[in-house]
């Protein structure tokens, strides 16, 4: 079971400029992410808890998933229904915030496969257009990652409820 990560544009900028002042441990881990090493190799190079470090970099938008083995995909799919959904939170987002959250979430979860949906989200001019693009995103996530992750995306962008 292996997942391959690469630096996002934000991650590359952080390495080059240190603009976001990433801590030394996180920066070291970010440097090691090269798009070729899978998570098994990275765990050997990153001090424990390496999984937490990789998840933090992923969650903050410094790295993205570029490859996932069939065994990893099956394990994620098998474990998804067992995971308890997060408690509902009511947050009112502006359209710009919704766009940003949606694009970041999709990019982190699906990497370049999310680009066509992200373009539709970015081009949405009216609230109805944005909602339609987000619904496309939900359906795409459901097809690629399963119902649990689709529900997570809906909650993240404020469509659930």
Can you tag this structure with a few keywords?
161 residues; mainly alpha; 2 domains; 2 strands; 62% helix; 7% strand
Describe the overall structure.
By secondary structure, the chain is mainly alpha-helical. It folds into 2 domains: 3-78; 95-157. The chain has 9 helices and 2 strands. The chain has helices spanning 9-17, 24-32, 39-45, 50-59, 70-79, 95-110, 115-123, 127-145, 147-157, and strands at 3-7, 63-68. It has a two-stranded antiparallel sheet with strand order 1-2. Helix 2 crosses helix 4 and helix 8 runs antiparallel to helix 9. The radius of gyration is 16 Å and the shape is globular. The mean pLDDT is 82.
What is the H/E order? EHHHHEHHHHH
Radius of gyration: 16 Å
Q: Considering DSSP H and I runs of 4 or more, what fraction of the residues is helical?
A: 55-70%
Average pLDDT confidence is: 82
Number of self-contained structural domains: 2
Strand content: 5-15%
Largest sheet: 2 strands, antiparallel
Please give the count of helices. Answer: 9
Q: How would you describe the shape?
A: globular
Please identify the oligomeric state.
Answer: single chain
End-to-end separation in angstroms reads 35 Å
Structural class: mainly alpha
Total beta strands: 2
């Amino acid at each position: 079971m292996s997942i391959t990560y690469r630096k996002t544009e934000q991650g590359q900028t952080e390495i080059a400029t240190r603009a976001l002042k990433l801590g030394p441990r996180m920066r070291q881990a970010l440097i090691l992410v090269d798009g070729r090493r899978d998570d098994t190799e990275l765990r050997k190079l990153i001090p424990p808890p390496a999984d937490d470090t990789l998840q933090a970099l992923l969650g903050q938008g410094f790295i993205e998933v570029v490859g996932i083995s069939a065994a990893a995909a099956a394990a994620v799919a098998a474990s998804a229904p067992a995971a308890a959904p997060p408690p509902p939170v009511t947050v009112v987002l502006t359209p710009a915030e919704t766009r940003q959250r949606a694009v970041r979430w999709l990019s982190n979860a699906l990497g370049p496969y999310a680009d066509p949906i992200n373009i539709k989200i970015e081009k949405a001019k009216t609230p109805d257009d944005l909602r339609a693009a987000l619904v496309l995103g939900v359906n795409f996530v459901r097809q690629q990652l399963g119902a649990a992750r689709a529900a997570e995306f809906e909650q993240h962008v404020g469509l659930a409820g």
